[in-house]
Design goal:
Blueprint: H1 3-15, H2 23-31, E1 52-53, E2 59-60, H3 63-73, E3 80-84, H4 90-98, E4 101-106, H5 109-121, E5 127-131, E6 143-152, H6 157-160, E7 163-175, E8 178-186, E9 192-199
Parallel strand pairs: 3-4, 3-6, 4-5, 6-7
Antiparallel strand pairs: 1-2, 7-8, 8-9
Length: 216
C-alpha cells in the first residue's frame, strides 16, 4: 500500500469534501502519519472512511470527523487543550501540533501506554497522558479547548464547566440511531451557547449512561 497516495486521496476525497479548508489543519493531517497510530491488523484501513476498531470496544474516529473537530475548535498556538479519550493517540498528536499543551485522559491504561509510545516515536512532547476515568476524575484546571472523543447522551455539563471564558468544546451527543456533533462556546459573561454541526455516530463513553443534563 502506498501510504502517501492514500493520504492524499483521504484529504481530497474525504476531508475537503466535508468542508475542511483550514490550511493549518490540512497541513497537520498531511504531516501526521495516521498509519503509525492504527493497530497493525487494521493498517490497510488507516485512510478509509470508517471507524477503526481499538481494544476494549473503542474506535478511532473517521478521518473526516477528526478533521472537522480540529477545524471547528479553531485551536490557537497558545491554547491549552483537554482531550477526553486518548484512544490510539492520533488525534492527540494533531491537537498537540495546534496547541501549546494537551492533557489527555484515557480510562484504559494499556491504550494510554501504547498511545504514549507512538507519540514519543513521532516526537510529540507537549502532552500529558493520564490514566483516568474522565467521568470520575478531579480536574481543577480550566481549558481553552476540550475535545470529547466518545459520545454522550446529552450535553456534557461536567466538561462544559471546565472551559475558560471564550473556550470551545466539541462533543457528539445523543443515542443511536441519532447523534449529532455539537460545538459549545463559553462566553465572557458566563453564558454558554451550543451549535449543531453535523450528524454522526461515535462509541458511547463508558460510565456516562445517566449524566446530569446541562441547561444552557
Amino acid at each position: 500500500m502506498n501510504y502517501e497516495t492514500a493520504r492524499q486521496q483521504m484529504l481530497s476525497q474525504q476531508i475537503r469534501t466535508w468542508d475542511v479548508l483550514d490550511e493549518r489543519v490540512l497541513e497537520i493531517l498531511r504531516a501526521t502519519h495516521r498509519e503509525l497510530f492504527v493497530p497493525d491488523a487494521e493498517r490497510e484501513l488507516a485512510f478509509a472512511d470508517t471507524e477503526i476498531p481499538l481494544p476494549h470496544g473503542q474506535c478511532m474516529m473517521q478521518p473526516k470527523v477528526e478533521a472537522r473537530l480540529l477545524q471547528e475548535l479553531a485551536i490557537e498556538s497558545t491554547d491549552t487543550v483537554l482531550e477526553i479519550g486518548t484512544g490510539s493517540g492520533y488525534l492527540t498528536a494533531c491537537l498537540a501540533q495546534l496547541a501549546e499543551h494537551v492533557i489527555s485522559l484515557e480510562i484504559f491504561a494499556d491504550l494510554s501506554d501504547e498511545a504514549g509510545q507512538r507519540l514519543k516515536r513521532t516526537g510529540v512532547s507537549n502532552i500529558e497522558l493520564r490514566d483516568e476515568d474522565a467521568m470520575a476524575a478531579r480536574i481543577e484546571a480550566r481549558f481553552d479547548v476540550i475535545a470529547v472523543t466518545a459520545s454522550l447522551p446529552s450535553l456534557p455539563g461536567r466538561f462544559i464547566e471546565l472551559l475558560k471564558p471564550g473556550g470551545r468544546l466539541f462533543s457528539v451527543v445523543g443515542r443511536l440511531p441519532v447523534m449529532e456533533a455539537i460545538l459549545v462556546r463559553s462566553h465572557t459573561d458566563g453564558s454558554t451557547t451550543a451549535k449543531s454541526l453535523f450528524e454522526t455516530v461515535l462509541t458511547p463513553m463508558l460510565n456516562a449512561d445517566q449524566p446530569e443534563p446541562f441547561i444552557l
